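Posting this for the archive.
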Amino acid sequence: MMKAKSVLFLVIFSVFAAAVFAGVTENAEGGFKGSVTEKVEKLMATNQDTERTYYPRDMRPNDIAIVGGMPLIAGVAYGYNINPNFQIALGAGAFFPGITADLSVKWFFMPTTITPYIAAGMTYVGALDKTVMAGHFDAGVDVALENALGISLGMVYMRSFSDMADPFDTAWGETNKIDNLGLQGGIHFRF
């Protein structure tokens, strides 16, 4: 008989506790009504699966840069950070004479304010009546400050995929291929 009373007491206590708990949680942040918090609603509205971190390249994933040096020589680039460590970038510039267009991927070793990086990409060089496709590999240091400004400095190796039959003019003289190692620098604005 004592055992039956104990079991009955536990069942009644469990039902009562569940009812009280349901009432408390129903009033707190939507409870069991199916609503979600404001943060999750904002993520759902922007169709994002993950939240942004407080790292500078993740808080402000868009990057506009004025760059000098290979592969754009003198140009402007736009980059987008997929996450704190990876960026996809497009750029356009002047090759003296001619124009350049670039597509590259950059990997930042650390998501911190100052970090080394490596990058690789393909560049179209239109030197007057000649066109050349080239690949490039970059390595350097990037600084992304909290006030949305930044700088970068690095080395770039750029090489054309094929040699031209006729030489084309550059600021450094005539050549039939691109096979250069040079400096690259940039001033960045993130938003």
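The chain has a mean pLDDT of 81. Residues 2-27 form the longest helix (26 residues).
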